[in-house]
Amino acid sequence: xxxxxxxxxxxxxxxxxxxxxxxxxxxxxxxxxxxxxxxxxxxxxxxxxxxxxxxxxxxxxxxxxxxxxxxxxxxxxxxxxxxxxxxxxxxxxxxxxxxxxxxxxxxxxxxxxxxxxxxxxxxxxxxxxxxxxxxxxxxxxxxxxxxxxxxxxxxxxxxxxxxxxxxxxxxxxxxxxxxxxxxxxxxxxxxxxxxxxxxxxxxxxxxxxxxxxxxxxxxxxxxxxxxxxxxxxxxxxxxxxxxxxxxxxxxxxxxxxxxxxxxxxxxxxxx
Length: 271
Hints:
This protein is mainly β. It has one helix at residues 58-66, and strands spanning 13-15, 26-32, 37-44, 47-48, 52-53, 76-79, 86-90, 103-110, 116-123, 138-141, 147-150, 159-161, 165-170, 174-176, 183-188, 195-198, 209-214, 221-223, 238-241, 248-254, 257-260, 268-270.
C-alpha cells in the first residue's frame, strides 16, 4: 500500500487504495531430534539472545527475546513447548508489521538424533496501512476520495470512514442504501406512491442516521422487514406517510435495529 506522505506531518495521508488492517506476525520455533541437553540462541535484526536451554520454557523465551533492543518489552509472547513448537507472536510496537524471521544461532544441542532448531514463518506479518500515524490522524483514498480517521494507535491503526452526510433521491420504488458511517437524507420524490425497502443494519453501522422526507403529496411507505422499527418486528415494520409534502421521520441504527429518533415522527404511522 503506497503512502504519499509521512504520518504526523499535519497533512492528511494519501492512500493508493482503501486502508487495510495489519497482521501480527507469528513464528514457530521447534527443537528437533529429541536432544537431552545443550543450548541455542535466537537472533533478530543483528541482536542475539542469551543462551536458551534445549527445553526452555516459553516464559524464558519471551524474556530473552524482549531483552533484545530491537524487540523490547511487550514485543513478543511465546507459547508452547520447544519439542512441539513454541509459537512466538509479535505485538506491541512490532504488531501489525512485516518483521524479519528469527534465526537460530550457536546451536549446541547434545543427545538425541541430529538435533537442530528450526524457525517457521507461521503467519507472516502484514504492515498496516498508515502504520505510525497518531490517533486522530486523517487520510484519504486517492482513488475514491473517501476520507478516513485513525481511531487506533500508531502501532495498530484502525482506519474508519469520517462521518459524512449524503442524500438519496427516491424517484422510483426501490431499496434504501445504508451508509457505513454518518447520516443520510432520503428524499421521496416519486410522483406517485413510493414503496421503499430498508435492510437490517450491522452492529458496525451503529450510529448511522437516516432521515426520510416526502417532497410529493403521497402516502409513501418504507418497509423494514423482519426487524421492524423500534425492535417491533412484524408489528411495526411499515412506516406509512400521511400524504402531505414535508411528512417524514428519522431513525438511528443500534445493535442491528432501527430506532425512531424521539420527536421526529411527523405525520407518519408505524404498523
